[in-house]
Design brief:
Layout: E1 2-4, E2 10-12, H1 23-30, H2 34-42, E3 49-51, E4 58-60, H3 63-72
Antiparallel strand pairs: 1-2, 3-4
């Protein structure tokens, strides 16, 4: 698989050695803000790898693991209100 890094340089990714990404890239992948990605990681909602000790850790993610976790979640949200219907005469 061919990807470009942040500097636009080409890098080949091996599925067995998938690179780690930061919260910004994980957020772009999930269409979430980086802060929300970090909240989900701290809550254990998405797989993440904390680096360091203490309160201020650096978090890294593997996009394939995040995607698998999202796919595995069963989402069952009942509609809160029905969509408005146009009346036909």
């Amino acid at each position: 698989m061919q990807r470009n890094d942040k500097r636009g340089q080409s890098m080949t990714t091996n599925p067995e050695r998938e690179p780690f990404v930061d919260a910004v890239e994980a957020g772009e992948f999930l269409h979430l803000r980086p802060r929300r990605v970090l909240e989900l990681a701290r809550q254990g909602e998405i797989p993440a790898y904390p680096l360091g000790q203490g309160k201020r850790r650096v978090w890294r993610f593997r996009l394939s693991e995040v995607a698998d976790a999202i796919r595995a979640r069963s989402v069952d949200y009942p509609r809160q209100s029905p969509a408005p219907r146009e009346e036909t005469i």
